[in-house]
Design goal:
Helix 9 packs antiparallel against helix 11 and helix 11 runs antiparallel to helix 13. The chain has five domains: about 160 residues, Orthogonal Prism (Agglutinin, subunit A), CATH 2.90.10.10; about 110 residues, Agglutinin, subunit A (Orthogonal Prism), CATH 2.90.10; about 150 residues, no CATH class; about 60 residues, 2-Layer Sandwich (Phosphorylase Kinase, domain 1); about 220 residues, Transferase(Phosphotransferase) domain 1 (Transferase(Phosphotransferase), domain 1), CATH 1.10.510. By secondary structure, it is α+β, with helices and mostly antiparallel strands. The relative contact order is 0.06. The strands form twelve sheets. Strands 7-3-4-5-6-8 form a six-stranded mixed sheet. About 20% of the residues lie in helices and about 25% in strands. It is globular. Belongs to the protein kinase superfamily. Ser/Thr protein kinase family. Keywords: ATP-binding, Disulfide bond, EGF-like domain, Glycoprotein, Kinase, Membrane, Nucleotide-binding, Receptor, Serine/threonine-protein kinase, Signal, Transferase, Transmembrane, Transmembrane helix. It is a single-pass membrane protein. It catalyses: L-seryl-[protein] + ATP = O-phospho-L-seryl-[protein] + ADP + H(+); L-threonyl-[protein] + ATP = O-phospho-L-threonyl-[protein] + ADP + H(+). It is found in: Membrane.
């Protein structure tokens, strides 16, 4: 009886109404629409059409309120199937897939009318906000692929929403040369944004919508490349159209984001949007490559933004548009006046500064000639000059008329050219008139100032030299520290630490960068004191910045020590039950999820291994040793970094030196799972470099994963099914970067809330696999790596 009642409640909540006939109309009012649904982010929808399965809607078409104003958009949306206990509020927000009137929201009592001649949206005052002529239409239908179409009497399509994409590209939808994908202003403001994606001469281009448009990416630009693959789906070109093909049970879509990125999302378990893949990840190799990362006129250097004044060493020409937000861009203090003589125009020269868009207008020219051309064209806002082989007399010029973010060129960009940018400025009239009359005075003052400067420079040199010597003596004596320490942590003097650690008598562990000693605070609290060797200084600084400490690091003492002592115990004296092993695996996963998703900025650990997993009395996990960790901003998808970590745990992309992201920790975690389950190291330098991952590959290809389970554990024999599941999840963590899951997905796999899709090709399971290269990473190349090995209780 209870089951019948619950079933009745669910079906009472939602009934399919996926189509409507002419002539019909719908008033934007709670009392006259089919349903009024509210979501957890305070948005709501008044439905006109809806279609779904199992008593819950999948898609709906209706009036959408973004929760921030009393206005509405006519939209198609994907609806989550998780609701609260009263079946009135959805626990997760919806995903807007298409909007008819993003630039012109309507108010209460607006009307949508369907006739045999048109589909029209009118605001309350009768103004037609949006309409489509549909002669011969007999009805309107919403399909399971998120497409809304108007039908003819023969069930043909007169018009469909797939013909007019907004900011989302759906599976099954084709993009033609006349159709563009436009970003929205924000998640909740559906007005047309600054970026668009469209077909252009048989390739897909990404553009800033300026005059003229400026291109910042291209896809499928090689004629014989007919498919762009991203694991769960692909973009397939046929003739002059490109179709989005899905290869996953989870609903997926491509969204052109407000910042110009192109992201693949999955709608996991039919209720939660999850980031999956950045399509432009390989092409735009760092965040500075995005056109508006630092706003208009902003200069991006390692994701930090500044104005051209700072980059050129000049002052008084630009200021931040928002004093508190440097990434909002810069504005000229003196606007360029086209009525002025060109003598009032000049340039700020930015050396080694590039621009994302380059439309060459003139070649075989030098920089002064380029600047002269720009001075004579008032619409020109800058000169981008590119040249080769350090010969500035022969180069190419580009003259953007609308200037967005600039980017400092790094040595590791491997560009085939050098680039300088000259930003046009307006010289104030008063300053220009005074310049000739005061030039002599300036010269005399400059000479006098130079003499004073040289005297001061000499005095400063001797002062710094004296302070440096004193600092070295103090540091040796343990009296002071030259390292900035966050004020929220406790500082200890060197003498205090000697007393705490009893002259560093009881050693708990030793590794490549230092030693760990047992200590006791005055209140009886046991601690672990890490003392780094001189060669560990580069690892010491990041750890201080990441977790806070002093020159010697003082940790909580964890009695169970590090994980490696338990899973690599050859004598069998410290075996773990399967229940505890599973607890540890899940604990590490949730710890990494916290670092990657809930810290702001996010943290990449870079050295996940059993030696850095510490255990308390109850075998609860604590991730330790943040010496190699790196902060990344929440909007960063990848970073540039040196090769670092421990052999046997590093992801292929880290060894290859490109496309490094939080997923390097996911890879390391996959190796750790294998080691926990199998009870042996992935690589052992004393056993002829026999890699566990290669053995797992062989067993997986033979369909005999259970053979790699640690047979020594008696209790494990009764839990072999779960152990095999853990190995299968580990394999997913070891997949190529573009299809490797993020930690929230890994946690869900471990908790059993989502299912694993089958893997048919295990070729990636190799210590030397590089998905971006035709050749495997050579073994001897991977051995010249930085081992950060510091284990033992802390």
């Amino acid at each position: 009886m209870l089951l019948l009642i619950n079933s009745f409640i669910i079906h009472a909540l939602f009934l399919d109404y996926p189509s409507a006939n002419v002539t019909s109309s719908w008033l934007n009012s709670p009392s006259t629409v089919e349903g009024n649904w509210r979501f957890s982010d305070n948005t709501s929808v008044r439905t006109i059409l809806a279609i779904g399965r199992n008593g819950f809607p999948d898609f709906c078409f209706g009036f959408f309120n973004n929760g921030t104003a009393d206005t509405f958009f006519l939209v198609i949306m994907k609806v989550p199937d998780k609701v609260d206990s009263t079946f009135s509020v959805y626990d997760y927000p919806p995903v807007v897939l298409w909007s008819a009137n993003g630039d012109s929201p309507v108010g209460e009592n607006a009307i949508l009318a369907l006739t045999d001649a048109e589909l029209a949206l009118k605001d309350v005052d009768g103004t037609v906000v949006w309409s489509r002529s549909t002669p011969g239409s007999v009805g309107m239908e919403l399909a399971f692929n998120g497409n809304l179409r108007l039908m003819s009497e023969q069930n043909g399509t007169i018009w469909e929403s797939f013909q007019e994409p907004t900011n989302i590209w759906l599976p099954g939808q084709s993009l033609l040369p006349s159709q563009n994908l436009y970003s929205s202003m924000s998640t909740y403001n559906l007005a047309k944004g600054l970026f668009y994606l469209g077909m252009n001469n048989d390739f897909i281009g990404c553009y800033v919508d300026s005059r003229p448009a400026q291109q910042y990416c291209s896809l499928l630009n090689v004629r014989h490349h007919t498919s762009f693959d991203f694991g769960v789906g692909s973009l397939n070109r046929s003739g002059n159209s490109v179709t989005y093909i899905a290869r996953s049970q989870d609903f997926q879509y491509l969204r052109l984001q407000p910042n110009g990125s192109l992201i693949v999302f999955l709608f996991l378990d039919n209720y939660k949007e999850m980031f999956y893949y950045d399509v432009l990840n390989d092409q735009l190799r760092d965040a500075c490559s995005y056109p508006t990362v630092c706003g208009r006129y902003g200069v991006c250097n390692n994701t930090k933004c500044s104005c051209p004044d700072e980059a050129s060493g000049s002052t008084g020409f630009f200021r931040q548009s928002n004093a508190l937000q440097s990434d909002f861009g810069c504005e000229a203090i003196n606007t360029i006046s086209c009525g002025d003589n060109i003598d009032n125009h000049d340039f700020l020269e930015l050396l080694n500064v590039n621009y994302f868009s380059f439309r060459s207008r003139i070649s075989s020219i030098d920089a002064p000639q380029c600047k002269d051309i720009c001075l004579r064209d008032c619409s020109c806002r800058a000169v981008v000059f590119r040249y080769r082989d350090y010969d500035t007399s022969k180069g190419e010029c580009s003259f953007p008329t609308d200037l967005f973010s600039l980017m400092v060129t790094k040595k590791d960009n491997m560009l085939p050219y050098k680039a300088n940018t000259c930003v046009k400025i307006q010289i104030p009239r008063a300053k220009n008139k005074k310049s000739s009359s005061t030039s002599l005075v300036v010269l005399l003052v400059s000479l006098f100032s130079s003499g004073i400067f040289l005297l001061l420079l000499g005095a400063c040199y001797f002062y710094v030299l004296r302070r440096k010597k004193r600092s070295i003596v103090n540091e040796r004596e343990g009296e002071t520290s030259i390292i900035h320490v966050p004020p929220v942590v406790i500082k200890f003097s060197y003498n205090d630490l000697r007393a705490i650690a009893e002259d560093f008598r009881v050693q708990l562990g030793k590794g490549g960068y230092g030693e760990v000693f047992e200590g006791t605070l005055k209140d009886g609290t046991k601690v672990a004191v890490k003392q780094l060797f001189d060669k560990g200084k580069t690892e010491f600084l990041p750890e201080v910045e990441t977790i806070g400490s002093n020159r010697l690091l003082v940790y909580e003492y964890l009695h169970k020590g590090s994980l490696d002592k338990w899973i690599f115990d050859r004598n069998g004296e410290q075996n773990l039950t399967w229940k505890i092993k599973w607890q540890i695996i899940l604990g590490i996963a949730k710890g990494l999820e916290y670092l990657h998703e809930h810290c702001n900025p996010k943290i990449i650990h870079f050295d996940i291994k059993p030696q850095n997993i510490l255990l308390d009395e109850e075998f609860n996990v604590k991730i330790a040793d943040f010496g190699l960790a790196k902060w990344i901003e929440r909007d960063q998808s990848k970073i540039s970094t040196m090769i670092k970590g421990t052999r046997g745990y590093m992801a292929p992309e880290l060894i290859a030196g490109r496309n490094v992201s939080v997923k390097v920790d996911v890879y390391s975690f996959g190796i750790v799972i294998l080691e926990i389950v199998c009870g042996r190291k992935n690589s052992d330098m004393y056993e002829n470099e026999v890699y566990l991952i290669d053995e797992v590959k062989r067993k997986a290809e033979e369909g005999r994963l259970e053979d790699v389970i640690d047979e020594c554990d008696e209790e494990l024999r009764g839990d072999k099914g779960l152990a095999v599941k853990a190995v299968e999840i580990a394999i997913r963590c070891l997949q190529p970067r573009n299809i490797r899951p993020f930690m929230p997905v890994v946690v869900k796999l471990l908790e059993g809330t989502i299912e694993m899709e089958p893997i048919f090709d295990y070729g990636f399971l190799s210590m030397f696999y590089d998905p971006n290269s035709s050749e495997a990473v050579k073994k001897n190349d991977s051995e010249r790596l930085m081992d950060s090995v510091l284990s033992g209780p802390r």
